[in-house]
Amino acid sequence: MIFRICLFTVCLLTGKTGIAQMPYDTLMTIRQVTIYFDFGKDALSTASTDSLLFLVGEDRTMEDRWIDIVAHTDSIGTEKANHALAQRRSKAVADFLQKMEWPATRIRKTAIGEAKPLAFNDTEEGRQANRRATITLLKRRVLTTIQGEIQDDSTGQSLVADIHILAREWRDSLQSDTSGKFHYTLPAGEVIRIDVRRPGHFFSSQMVKAMPGLSPLEIRIQPIVLGASADIQNFYFVGDQAILLPKSVPELSVLHQFMTINPTIIVEIAGHVNLPWQPPVDSTTRHFNLSMRRAKFVYDDLIQRGVSPHRMTYQGYGNWEMRFPNATTARQQELNRRVEIRILSTGEIISKKAPLYMIGKEGG
Fold first, then answer.
1. 201 secondary structure, DSSP code
2. What is the pLDDT of residues 297-311, one digit of tens each?
3. 221 φ/ψ angles, rounded to the nearest 5 degrees
């Protein structure tokens, strides 16, 4: 078995997340420990064996678990001698694991020697830090490929678009081809978010669990035309407040990107509240004021991010346009308390109902 730890796995090894390449292997880190040796020795200390016992736990019985051992030395002595010492240290770790019933066929040993010090070798403290072995417990995961096609929601035409893949520990990006198609390989069972972005269209976002046999995705994105409107996706407020739910805060950045890649549009930010089973509220009520404050919250955030106020207005609609006027579930109520983006003509608000008033270009 050839072990290759890709950049995806390295992110997990280092505890850092961020932009990563597509995972090229099926190994991901579960746990990792580092143990230390005395000068010139390969014997395991009590502390080292305790660390190894913690590392393997009950995982020794699972066939999808693997161990990777990387051994190092300080720089005292010749390079050849230090490489041999690193080999003995990696073997000492492997021997102990095998005594603990870890299969030898699921262990990889690498002897680095003095080549990759963690610290300078000019002090005893630095040399001690370099006399180490790093042992990583890995899980083998089956890879699967998701496929899909990006289409214009009005015409059905296939589109070239930017696609952003966001998982819990990593993210990546790609582009659909001229036929609108894309494919992406990742560990099976991973829950990911797929964001689709294209100038001249509203953004699209959806959650997908990548499982073998998943049908190709058909992602339709709405074109930006005069009078068009779309919800800010995954954008929900705390009940009866103009405070975003924590899970929705990242959507403010997504909205800013939407305004950035569509620099000529002028929009209305339309706020709504959840007040089911009730007649339309008057503009003097606190519920109407809440819808206004939700819209202004978004408006203010975009201005802080550099969007010109001349490109935006904001307006509240109370409970006039609830998606679920007779909402009975928490999900339906969430969708009622939403914010929409509406595409305007110059100075003219496109809406089902004329607004009671409009905030001026400078924000009122």
1. B
2. 999 999 999 999 999
3. -115, 140
345, 277 contact by CB (below 8 A): no
* Element (DSSP H or E) covering residue 172: strand 171-175
| Tokens read off for 361 | 């270009």
Question: Closest Cα partner for 314 from 275, 352, 281, 357?
Answer: 357
Tokens 């292997």 -> residue: 25
Distance CA 361, CA 311 (A): 8
- What is the per-residue pLDDT across 145-181, written as a single tens digit (0 to 9) for each? 999 999 999 999 999 999 999 998 889 999 999 999 9
Nearest to 81 by CA among 36, 42, 121, 117: 42
In CATH, which superfamily holds the domain spanning 142-223?
Carboxypeptidase-like, regulatory domain (2.60.40.1120)
Q: How far apart are CA 51 and CA 36, in angstroms?
A: 11
Q: With bands split at pLDDT 50, 70 and 90, how would you rate the model's confidence at 356?
A: very low
What are the angstrom distances between the C-alpha of 259 and each of 229, 273, 309? Answer: 14, 24, 12
27-140 is a CATH 3.30.300.180 domain: no
What are the structure tokens assigned to 251, written together? 């959507």
Closest CA to 286 of 260, 324, 312, 316: 316
pLDDT > 50? residue 354: no
| Spatial separation of the C-alpha atoms in residues 272 and 96, rounded to whole Å | 64
Confidence of residue 25 (pLDDT cuts 50, 70, 90): low
* Contact of 255 with 188, CB cutoff 8 Å: no
- Rounded to whole angstroms, how far apart are CA atoms 270 and 99? 66
What pTM was estimated for this model as a whole? Answer: 0.64
CATH classification number, 226-364, choose in 3.40.50.720, 3.20.20.70, 3.30.1330.60, 1.10.10.10: 3.30.1330.60
Which DSSP string corresponds to 21-82?
PPP-SSEEEEEEEEEE--TT--PPPHHHHHHHHHHHTTGGG-TTEEEEEEEE--SSS-HHHH
